[in-house]
## 1
Amino acid sequence: MKTLIEFIHQKQCEIPYATGEFTQLINDLTIAAKIVNRELTKAGLTDILGESGESNVQGEVQKKLDVFADQHFIKALKNGGQCCAIVSEELDEPVIFDDEFSMKGKYVVAIDPLDGSSNIEVNVPVGSIFSVYQRISPVGTRATIEDLLQPGVEQHAAGYITYGSSTMLVYTTGKGVNGFTYDPSVGLFLLSHPDMKIPEYGAMYSINEANYIYFPEGVKKYINYCQEHDKSTNRPYSTRYIGSLVADFHRNMIRGGIYIYPGTEKNPDGKLRLLYECNPVGFIAEQAGGKATDGFKRILEIKPKSLHQRVPFFTGSVLMVDKAMEFMSLFLENSGRPKGIYCDYCRKPQEQQ
Ligand code: P6P
């Protein structure tokens, strides 16, 4: 079995910027992942469960493990010296290092340190998600907000760690997707899933149907399409929704399927964050032969306007995402907005908009 570092060194020639710094950065991320994994596996036994008493920028109550994971990813990236700035789901403001060592870092990182953490106390898989960009601002200076607001097409790497029945690192540097399973007995990530590809079709759709009445008409019609068992084609759809993006997406990576978190009447831009959820997962999806859109356009081409910007998210098997997009395009208002999505703004008479 090939270790992660052996794999990166072997691929070094294929990755133009895979200098030692890049290998170091990926290694820094895995150090934090190992520490988070250790705490997760004993979460039920130590006083690490429960709430930190704080809330994050999402307004979500932070679990103690959220804060723990955030602190360790930031510490690992700072100690490694390759990263000059971080945007994290857990922090309102970006971390922009101003020590000389860190300002020489070539990369900036967007992270969701512990996605799906509300599932921890019920022992459901959670994940960490990361997205890596080369900085735009000069090396040796303090990073700027422009370094962090780059579109997804500029990512140099993206990955997730899924803390499930086994802990896996899945990542891409734009040359395909590879999966590594963690062996705690030796403390190493070992290549277990080389050159991962999402099946172009699958039988699973993942969406929180409790929000059905608030979905755009196109999403409702797509769900109905999945549920209609057409005897001639015998479409064998099932629905699986874990409530943990990384776990739902990883299943779709292996078996095929679609994950949808659409805009709703209450939240027209949906729930998921562009920088540290949709861009990295979308990069992996595309590199594995899948697709990632907001229902209409490619996620990776969206120019971020703010660090914690939300976007509707449709990702997974290419033919399933295409079918869902077909329904989204069929049901549009004259304004071009998806039918069935309203917000206070667009409810106002036209002259006020
Ligand atoms: P809901 C977790 O909070 C998360 O960001 C994703 O991991 C997950 O797919 C989604 O939100 C669950 O959201 O509204 O269905 O509970």
Note: The mean pLDDT is 90.
## 2
Amino acid sequence: MISIENQIVLVTGASSGIGAACAKIFAKGGAKLILAARRVSKLDRLANELADTKLIASASDIHLVELDVRDRPAVESAITGLPETWQNIDILINNAGLSRGLDKLHEGNFQDWEEMIDTNVKGLLYVTRAIVPAMVSRGRGHVVNIGSIAGRQAYPKGSVYCASKAAVRAISDGLKQDLLGTPVRVTEIEPGLVETEFSNVRFHGDAEKAQNVYRGLTPLTADDVADVVYFCATRSPHVNISEVLLVPTDQATATLVHRNEF
Ligand code: NDP
Ligand code: 8X3
């Protein structure tokens, strides 16, 4: 196991769910955090919480970046404009992502499609393209991409989200091949059902529909996923965990779940 102490870790989508849980576990390990998302007020709150719970010495030990990963010029200037002491990113956690809608493909909403593809695929590519060159030239780095079980198995009404996560799988696989011969590691984490803001976002704020996704089963928590990310990041430098599929015990495939009905 290697130490995370003083490693610079950039987490996209750190304002909620899995990204926020990654921030917490890496802070606990002594990392220096760059937290990025659009809702900077939530990042502020998280930084204060980490300081209040003594996971970091003070909120100013975290660098916050207001960032929409869909905006390529903004991604490039956010990375090139990092203060010098924050530039040597050791670990990139490409977590920002979302689903929008649950519709048959032939009835799908174009805006939902654009948002998923622009965020989950193009945004991840922009951030990776901005950060990995310096990892290669410094001879150190680790890219962790948050994919999904949906990238392995499509499900009804989910084809565009599933396609975006299949792209994350292909990008992770291809990046690992492109980085062969460098010490830079690539990991893709593929969770099943995790209870976060994810379903609320998918159903455009319909809380009842969102809760129904997890009805009668015990989903993964964001901390469960962050634990696995942390495990992968702390293996010896010669060990590359390329892919991890983790699901709740109550889930077997993307569509086959066990629910206790009351
Ligand atoms: P949340 O909705 O809780 O968190 C999503 C995060 O992504 C938020 O911090 C949000 O921040 C950020 N985000 C969304 N769009 C953008 C954008 N354009 N630019 C920057 N940040 C953005 O969901 P999860 O924590 O569950 O999702 C995290 C990742 O995990 C996603 O990639 C998701 O696809 C994946 N995943 C989730 C599963 C689940 O069941 N929950 C299962 C498998 C994978 P903000 O809105 O402030 O910008
Ligand atoms: C999120 C998991 O099954 O809701 O990627 O698509 S699922």
Note: The radius of gyration is 18 Å.
